[in-house]
Amino acid sequence: MRVNWRSIKWAKNSYAALYAACEQSGILLHETNKPADDITCYSLNSIDEPHYRDEIADAGCITIVGGPHASACPHEVATYADYVVVGEGEFTLPALIRSIGDGCGHVPPGVCSGDVCRPSTSQVFLPAYRPFTRVKGTIEISRGCPYHCAYCQTPCLFGNRMRHRTIEGIVEAAEHYRDVRFVTPNALAYGSDGTHPRLDRVEALLRALKGHRIFFGTFPSEVRPEWITDESLDLITSYASNRKLHFGAQSGSDRVLRLLKRGHTTGDVMHAVDLCHDHGIIPVVDYIFGFPFETDEDQNASIEQIREVARYGKIHAHYFTPLPGTPLAGTTPRDVLPEVQNILGNLALRGKATGSWIEAEIRFFSRNENQYP
Question: From the CA atom positions of the chain, what is the Rg in Å?
Fold first, then answer.
C-alpha cells in the first residue's frame, strides 16, 4: 500500500514532522503534486482549503486531510474527504493508515469519517518524536499556548498547555544545520508553563547549541512583548546571531487588546520596543487591521503607535481573517481606512513595513511567504 503526501508549500514543516512520525511506525510517505494511489494525505489551512476541496472530492484514491482547517471544521471536511485527522497527527495518522491497511474499518481516536467522529484521547508527548528525519524541517521546540487570543487557531490544534522537546532532542536535530531556527508560539517561554518565564532553561538550550548560528525570536519563533526584558535580551545578544526580534502588538488600542484577550497592553509593546533599541536589537512588530469591533479611533491608535515603532524598528501588518475554531469565527472584517492604507504603503516604500494589510491571501500564496525577517 503506497501512502502519498500532497505537496503544499506552506505545509512543509507538517510534512517533515509527519514523515518522521510515520517512518517511526514503519510507514513511508511519498511526496506528490496530485492525488495518487493508494492513499493521499493533505494538510490544509483555512485560506488554501477552498483551492484543494474539489481535487480531494474528485480524487480516485483514499484521502486523509488534517491541519488547522480540518481540525476546526472536521464535519465539513468529512463531506469531501474519506478521513479527517483532528488535531495533532504524530500518533493519529500512522494509527489511521494501519487501520486502513488492515481493512478492519476501525476509526481511531482523533479521526472523523462520514458520520463517525471520535475525539482525541491524548496529546502528543513531543520528546517521543523527532521533529524531522529524511525530510528536513524547522525545529519545533514547543507546542501549545496558554493564552486565548480571539483570532488564533493554535489552541484548537495544540491545546492550552505548553509542551517542550528536550534539549538533547533539539541539539540532535540542530546537527543537520549550521543556521538553527525554531518553531514555537513564544521562544522565550521554552521550558516554562507559558505564563511564568524560565530563562534558566532558555539559557541552557542556547548554551547547548554553541557552535551553531542561532536565530532565536525571529520568524517562525516570535515572542510576546511582555516577555521582553533586559535579562531576556541579554540572552539573545549573548548567544544568538539575529539582531532583530519579532513580536506581536496586534493593535495600538488597549480597548482592542482587551477584547482580543491578548494579555498585554500597549504600554508593554512600547516598553519592549525601547528595550530592544537599548540593546541594539531591531524590533519587528506585528499588527492586525480589520477586527470586526475595531473603530476608526482604534485604527488610528494603531497607526500612531506604528509611527513610533517605525523610528527604531519595522512593521509586519496583516488584514484580519476570521478563522474557524476561534472566538471570532464567522465575523465580518471591517475595512481598513484609506489613510491607514496610505501610511502603511509609505512605510513599505521606505522599507519600514511588510505584510498584507488589504488582502489576507497574499501572505499564503506569495513567493516570499516563508522569508525570514
Answer: 21
56: number of CA atoms within 13 Å, CB side?
27
Calculated CA dihedral for residues 124, 125, 130, 131, nearest 10 degrees: 60
Q: Residue 13 in contact with residue 141, Cβ under 8 Å?
A: no
Do residues 75 and 155 both lie within one domain?
Answer: no
Q: Mutual orientation of helices 230-239 and 199-208 as an angle, nearest 10°? A: 0
Total-model pTM: 0.91
Per DSSP bridges, beta strands 3-6 and 29-32 are parallel
Q: What is the pLDDT of residues 279-327, one digit of tens each?
A: 999 999 999 999 999 999 999 999 999 999 999 999 999 999 999 999 9
Q: Give the pLDDT confidence of 325-370 residue by residue, as tens digits.
A: 999 999 999 999 999 999 999 999 999 999 999 875 554 444 444 3
Contact 168, 127 (CB under 8 A): no
CATH (domain of 263): 3.80.30.20
Q: How many domains is the chain partitioned into structurally?
A: 2
Domain residues for the domain of 39 are 3-118
Is cis: bond before 94, omega within 30 of 0?
Answer: no
Question: And the C-alpha cell for 249?
Answer: 502588538
> Could you give the strand order of the β-sheet that contains 179-183, starting from the edge strand earlier in sequence?
139-140, 179-183, 213-215
All three cell numbers of 198, joined, read 524560565
* DSSP class per residue in 241-276: ---EEEEEEE-S-HHHHHHHT-S--HHHHHHHHHHH
- Residues 28 and 63 sit within 8 Å (Cβ to Cβ): no
> For residues 216 and 245, what is the distance between their CA atoms, to the nearest angstrom?
8
Residues 6 or more apart in contact with residue 278 via CB below 8 angstroms: none
User: Is 129 inside any structural domain?
Assistant: no
Gap between the Cα atoms of 183 and 138, Å rounded? 6
Residue 335 per-residue DSSP state: P
At which of 87, 118, 149 does a domain end?
A: 118
Amino acid found at 59: A
Q: For residue 239, give the amino acid letter.
A: Y
